[in-house]
Amino acid sequence: MKNSLEPSVPNKKIYLILVLGLLTAIGPFSIDMYLPAFPAIAKGLHTSVSQVMLSLSSFFIGISAGQLLYGPLLERFGRKKPLYLGLSIYLLASVGCVMVGSVQGLIALRLLQALGGCVGMVAARAMVRDLFEVKENAKIFSTLMLVVAVSPIVAPTLGGYVTAVLGWRYVFIILIYIALFILAGIYYLLPESKQPDPNFSLKPEPIIKNFYGIIRHPQFATYAFTGAVSNAGLYAYISGSPYVFMEIFKVSEKQYGWIFALIAMGLIGASQINNVLLKNYNNEQIINGALRCQCVVGLLLVVITLLGWDEVFLIIFLIFLFLSCQGFIFPNASALSLALFGHNAGSASALLGAIQMSIGAGASALVSLLHNHTPLPMTGVMATCTLTALVVLFRGSKRLIYKAAEKVVDEGKVEVISTL
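^ MFS transporter, DHA1 family, bicyclomycin/chloramphenicol resistance protein, sequence as received from the core. Prediction below:
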């Protein structure tokens, strides 16, 4: 039985999904908006772009570790109190980013900003599982992606213009106002979807055992890692694209923002087409087909880079196709990962998010590590991610089929015994 707070009025449901979408988008928005400002930040803080890129890596680390912290808090104290705590930390860190005077300070503050902001991503996924039926989850996640996908359309474009006209510090001032707006939405529009559980232990040992029990589940492991490894290709693109487009192809900050926005439209379109496909196909079929297509596109990106055919419009077109596939993979993988964890949705959501961000951070760092003044590190890591995800899905699916067959055999034995 679902939570009694499940929205029954259509308008209320729309507002609820909007707030959940904004909570999910705060992390991506905090990443995408300052990407065009990398050269300006480097100049303002008297450092290099490669040093500024470390602030992106620290953000990924914070957003990965922070989600594991908030999972238990969301079980113990309900959904809204941890949201207030995390977003308050985010606000203070954003104020610090406005006033920061060194790249080392920016790296530390971005870590703190991520530790605060990631609560929105965990809570939003958990609340989808709290408030909606399991069969609706993939559709709700696709709808959330519509809100999330606005981030890479609006954020880099806005960030590029703000940096060019007002300076890079105003990027973080805008993030402060966005956080305040989200806090107002939580207070006025977001119901408490799970009552506090004082019996949920916050001691390390039971928390670790709880996470271990979740990750050992074959369905969670299969789809969590499939979605996370595939999604790491997106983080490889986010990490590598400022250098590829602004340094190699010499586009301006404003042009980069528009390129980023155009590519992100593939995510929006795919996530909404996903809702239509779910009427005739199941989640597993959609993931399988989209991942195979993404592998083909990823390999094409590597081939044209190696052959020196890396013309800017061709790169943009192929990355557009690559991320469009992600619009089908991500919502279905998330829904299947969380489907079995109604009573433990907060912890499962936290673990899912931590896996996604940890692998994404690794892909981002790998692009920087392999930097060779060509697009190959970015395109190579993107292709590696999607090929690895296909292997994970293939092996995990075989394991799920085997487990299902075992269950049928066991049930058959019980039926035979009961008739003796």
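The chain has one domain: 12-190+217-412.
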